[in-house]
Amino acid sequence: MGKCEPPAGGDPKEESGPVRRGSAYVRSVHAGIRLLAYPFLLVATVLAATAALCFDWAPERVSPLFLIGTIAYLTALERLIPYQRAWHPSRREWRSYGVYFLLTAAGSALAQYVVTTSVSEMASDEPALHPGIEIPAALLTGSLASYLVHRLGHAIPILWRLHGVHHVPQKVNVANNGVNHVLDIFLAQGAVQLSLALAGFSSDSVLIVGLFVAAQGYFIHANIDVRIGLLNHVLASPEQHRLHHSTDLAEAGHYGSDLSIWDHLFDSYTWRPGREPAAVGLGDPESFPATGQITTTLLHPLRRAKRAGTGSA
């Protein structure tokens, strides 16, 4: 063997060293992303709300742009730090999810329009209370209304025939957060908007709460490996919401989509560290049309049920 020729096979340490160092670097980067992903979202929400108020931006422009930014951010995180790679949507699913997203947006806008035109004064220009009191009060009011409507959607058969559409997919990700029956969104958003309107909260408070709720709603549905620790007992999270979609009704609580305090209060809190669903979706998939059958899904509540059923399984 010549002096310039390395031993057969080379030095294993030299060959594997850069790969190991690279892998360790990638793991550390991913760990940093997991740690900062949620705080970054919360800070971005606060900054967006502050900018909207300081520069007097129109809510009808701020809210859609903020929502698009939130979805883009969380979709990117799903690729960087996925909880389940198998839960990434396929191209066909992206197409059907897009249609549902538009239907969901239409249902939400219709609910807001109906409430606005039905209530003489949707929101006052000036806060009745100090913002430090009114904003938390508005959040608690809207969150409680959302929790109650969501829980009723699982408990009352006719409402479940609407809400169950959201539980058909056997994966949980940002894209299928918009998979809803348009009437389910109309009822849910209408209840929230009506509760805020009747309480007389200012438009600024409603805007701030709306941005936070939008961020939380998509965050909890994100297919990302993020854990928020003790904050789970106050705020909703992907860890909890995956259990909500579980086919096992014993663990499928967590009806709060922004705050988790109502789940504690009304005994629907099932999460504990390390608890994960074995499967998500419907225990009886035949009870609802497949997600891709959009027209059939929209007509589904009008058809006679084969048997009464509630819940996510």
Description:
The protein starts with 11 loop residues before the first helix and ends in a 14-residue tail after the last helix. The longest helix has 43 residues, at 12-54. Helix content is 57%, strand content 0%. The protein is mainly α and 313 residues long.
Write the layout of secondary structure elements.
Elements: H1 12-54, H2 59-80, H3 91-118, H4 131-155, H5 157-163, H6 182-199, H7 203-219, H8 238-244, H9 261-265, H10 294-299
Helix pairs in contact: 1-2, 1-7, 2-7, 3-6, 4-5, 4-6, 4-7
Overall pLDDT metric: 89
Overall 3D shape: globular
User: How many individual β-strands?
Assistant: 0
Number of helices: 10
Give the termini separation: 69 Å
Biggest sheet, open or closed, and with what strands and sense? none
Strand content: under 5%
Radius of gyration, Cα only, in angstroms?
23 Å
Order of H and E elements: HHHHHHHHHH
Structural category: mainly alpha
Q: Helical proportion? A: 55-70%
Low-confidence stretches: 1-19
Condensed summary:
By secondary structure, the chain is mainly α. It is 57% helix and 0% strand.
Features:
mainly alpha; 10 helices; 57% helix; disordered N terminus
